[in-house]
Amino acid sequence: MARTIEQYFRKHMDGLHRYAWTLLRSNEAAEDAVQAVFLKLWEKRAGIDEKQSVQSWLYTSVYHYCLNVKRSDAVRTEYRREQMIQHQPAIFRDELVGSEQMQQIRLALESLPTQCRIIFYKSRFDKMKYAAIAQEMDISVKTVEAQIGKALRILREKLSDILVMIILYLMM
Question: Mean pLDDT throughout 158-164?
């Protein structure tokens, strides 16, 4: 059976990698998905019925693995967002901005387009450099710069009244 698994690996690895990449948009994550699925196949090698479609099992397993990765990424992103809100400087939490304004800020951040929001959070709250974000997300540094600029424009527009209030308060 070990020789058969090697044959499956050679035959399906590239296709599975491309499929995982379309779901995850990351070469490293796609490689991890394919390796994890073949490891699972190796562990279950004794119970494999070769009359059934191993190819279908491989693609289905990669699909489910990728969904789990996306779910856990979403949970991590939400956790980071919650941590960011809880650990904001006091000036934005209590003294200067009330709960209504905090809600406006949260809504403005959440209203950013998905990729724009992820890039903005990684840059501003995770303190990642543009090059690291670009590499992790498999996009260009110029795209990261453009998305940060877009996020700042949107936030300036949506939060202009709060910013004016803060500036007036600081001038007192």
Answer: 78
pLDDT in tens, 108-154: 888 899 889 999 989 888 888 999 999 988 899 999 999 999 998 98
Architecture of domain 89-171: Orthogonal Bundle (1.10)
CA 121 to chain centre: 10
The count of residues in the chain is: 172
User: How far is 118 from 105, CA to CA, in rounded Å?
Assistant: 16
Q: Quick one: CA dihedral 77, 13, 5, 54, positive or negative?
A: positive
- The matching CATH number, chosen from 3.40.50.1100, 1.10.1740.10, 2.30.30.230, 3.40.50.720, for 2-72 is 1.10.1740.10
Q: Which residues contact 45 (CB under 8 A, 6 or more apart)?
A: 1, 2, 5
Let me know the angle formed at the C-alpha of 74 by 12 and 132, rounded to the nearest 5 degrees. 75
Half-sphere exposure of 78 (CA within 13 A, CB side): 6
Beta carbons within 10 angstroms of residue 169's beta carbon: 12
pTM: 0.51
In the chain, where the domains are located: 2-72, 89-171
DSSP 55-92: HHHHHHHHHHHHHHHHHHHHHHHHHHHHHHHHTS-HII
